[in-house]
Structures are given as structure tokens and as C-alpha cells.
Design goal:
By secondary structure, the protein is α/β, with parallel strands linked by helices. It has 14 helices and five strands. It is about 50% helix and about 5% strand. Helix 13 packs antiparallel against helix 14. About 40% of the residues are buried.
């Protein structure tokens, strides 16, 4: 599966495209910016531009080289990022690191919407030695080699030893002439000053909420409904990564909301069993989120109906007036949930009202 398109950063891409065309790109870049805004994806875009068959320039996206970069198969683009520490014999740790990296790249090729690495993962010394080994080789099919090092601040994760960072410094001090390095970080102060001094920093800014919402609507295998995408985009403050994490966390909420709406079309005994399954304890905010998600589903269906594109699959035959009435009932239930009303009583009442509406 190819990498998703690089959303946003249009001004930065324009500047970089001109720099690539003029062959003035620094050999070692440090992309600095908040997490989840697409810095590593931008690094892949730069790599594609360096290796593009019509370049160097902004990547065309259609040539064979661009295709290989975008499907994580180009032999001259080497992507390193935090992984588990190799545990085998020290003499074989570089080979183990390579195996771990190949497995991780294969997983990202299958699902490019990867999450943040485990807190114990890092770019350990065997990984940097592997990078050094590859840097000494000649390009396989392109003009240059490109090394993308994501989350470079994890060169020394939770450890006092600077071995990995010092090994990285040696590569940057004596880079081969046919090699470009692109490092990314959200915490530049965590890098050794000697490493930072050999990198040209480039600030990558947060995305606009509209760009994050568009990504959520267009890229995931299960697109996020428009209203929910806008809500998550606002909360994510310009970070696609944060918005995707919020989606993962809200999957259970969405499932519970759909179950709530489904039971309104079931017989009374099914609604009764569903009501008994609702927790009467725990965070009230969790229950309120389920109600909010249910209202959001119906609002999306109502918006489609008013645009003449039909309602959702479950409510395709429900008139717009009934959808609006159902939304009002859920909003009323939300106001009760903010008080001290038992959630089971709220669900019992809401289920009966939604059934009467004919949802």
C-alpha cells in the first residue's frame, strides 16, 4: 500500500521544490516541529524529489522512482525510526537490528497509518551501525542515497550512554558525497549539540484544522464522518497523528453509539437487555461521549438527506423530520447525563422515545 499523500505544508513544499531544482538542498536537514504533523512523510517527499526521474525537483509522483519511494521499496531510501533494543549476542546485533527494521518497514508498507512507537523503543547503537554500513555503499539505482531518521531525539532513549548519538555524529561528520540525511524531531533540545550543529534546521508548522479533517475523511480505510472529523481536527490542534489516536480511542465510543441507535429498531426485550448492560458507575463523561457520538451519526445522516444524497445505510428510509426529532431527544438525554441521573434510566427512556419516533 502506498504512503498517503502529503497533506498541507504547501508553502514549505514550494520552497523545497525550488531548492531541489536549484540543487541547493543541504546534505543534512533537521525537520523540527510538533509530533504527528507529517515530518517523516515530508522526509519521504524530499527523498522522492531527490530521486525523481524528472528531478531533482518537487517529485512528479508518477515516475517509477517516485512509485518506489511512495511504496517504501526504493533501494536508495533508507528509513530508520525507533524500534526495540536488539537482545542477541553483541556480534550479531546489527543483523538483528536489520531484521527488526525490515519487519517494521513491511508492516508500514501494509498499513502506512502507523502509530507512535513504544516508549521503550529507540534508535540504539546497532541501528546506527547499520545506518553507517549502508551509508558506505554506493547508490543502487539513483543519483544519491537518502537516509530518513525519524524521531532522532530517541538516539539515546532513557539512558545516560551517548554511544548511539556519537556514532550518528561520526556519520554526519564524514558523510559520503552521494548521501543526504533528513532527521526529524519534536524535541531538538534532546539531540546532542554537536549533532544539531551539523544539521540545517527547518521548521515544520502545524497543519490547519481543515487539512486534518480532510485527511480523516479521505485517507483511512474507514473514513471519519464529516462532523466527527471536524471535531477531532479541532481537538488535535494541527496534528494528524493526534487526530488518528483520538480516532482509535473513540472507536469504542462509536461502536457503543451505533448499538444504542440499533436497539431503537429492536423489540422491547432487546432494548431492555441493552439497558441492563449500561454501566451505572464510572466516568459520566464516557456516557456523555456515547450520546454525543450518536447525535453526530444522526446529524451526518440528516445532512446527507438535506443535500439529496440519501441518509446513512441504517437510516436511508427515515424522514428528515424524524431524524431531527431523534437528535433533539438525544440532546435532551445529554443534558440529563450531565446531572446525576442514572445512565440506565436515561437509556431506557431514550430507547423508548427513539422507538416511538420510528428511527
Amino acid at each position: 500500500m502506498p504512503l498517503p499523500p502529503l497533506y498541507g505544508h504547501e508553502e514549505l513544499k514550494s520552497r523545497l521544490g525550488g531548492t531541489l531544482k536549484a540543487r541547493k538542498l543541504p546534505p543534512a536537514l533537521l525537520l523540527v516541529g510538533p509530533s504527528g504533523i507529517g515530518k517523516q512523510r515530508l522526509g519521504q517527499w524530499i527523498a522522492a524529489g531527490l530521486l525523481c526521474e524528472s528531478g531533482p525537483s518537487a517529485p512528479c509522483g508518477t515516475c517509477h522512482s517516485c512509485h518506489l519511494v511512495n511504496t517504501l521499496q526504493h533501494p536508495d531510501v533508507h528509513w530508520f525510526f525507533p524500534l526495540a533494543r536488539p537482545k542477541g549476542d553483541e556480534s550479531k546485533q546489527v543483523e538483528e537490528a536489520e531484521e527488526l527494521l525490515v519487519e517494521a518497514i513491511t508492516a508500514r508498507r501494509a498499513d502506512p497509518l502507523y502509530g507512535r512507537p513504544d516508549g521503550l523503543h529507540g534508535i540504539f547503537l546497532p541501528m546506527v551501525r547499520l545506518l553507517h554500513r549502508r551509508a558506505m555503499m554506493r547508490p543502487v539505482m539513483g543519483r544519491v542515497k537518502v537516509f530518513l531518521v525519524g524521531e532522532a531525539d530517541r538516539l539515546v532513549p532513557q539512558a545516560s550512554s551517548p554511544e548511539a548519538a556519537n556514532a550518528m555524529l561520526k556519520v554526519l561528520e564524514e558523510p559520503p558525497p552521494d548521501t543526504h540525511f533528513v532527521l526529524t524531531t519534536a524535541e531538538p533540545s534532546a539531540l546532542l549539540p554537536t549533532i544539531r550543529s551539523r544539521l540545517v534546521p527547518l521548521r515544520v508548522r502545524r497543519l490547519g484544522s481543515a487539512e486534518v479533517a480532510r485527511f480523516l475523511r479521505e485517507v483511512p480505510a474507514q473514513p471519519v464522518p464529516a462532523a466527527e472529523a471536524e471535531r477531532r481536527a479541532e481537538a488535535a490542534y494541527g496534528s494528524i497523528g493526534d487526530a488518528l489516536e483520538a480516532r482509535a480511542e473513540s472507536d469504542d465510543v462509536q461502536a457503543a453509539a451505533r448499538r444504542l441507535l440499533e436497539t431503537a429498531r429492536a423489540k422491547a426485550s432487546v432494548r431492555f437487555r441493552h439497558t441492563l448492560g449500561v454501566k451505572t458507575y464510572g466516568a459520566r463523561s464516557d456516557f456523555s461521549e456515547v450520546l454525543a457520538a450518536a447525535a453526530g451519526i444522526l446529524r451526518d445522516d440528516l445532512a446527507q438527506r438535506l443535500r439529496g444524497t440519501g441518509g446513512g445505510a441504517d437510516h436511508a428510509t427515515v424522514p428528515a423530520e424524524r431524524l431531527l426529532e431523534a437528535i433533539r431527544e438525544i440532546e435532551r438525554a445529554k443534558s440529563w447525563a450531565r446531572g446525576n441521573v442514572n445512565p440506565q434510566l436515561i437509556v431506557a427512556h431514550l430507547g423508548r422515545k427513539l422507538a416511538e419516533i420510528g428511527l
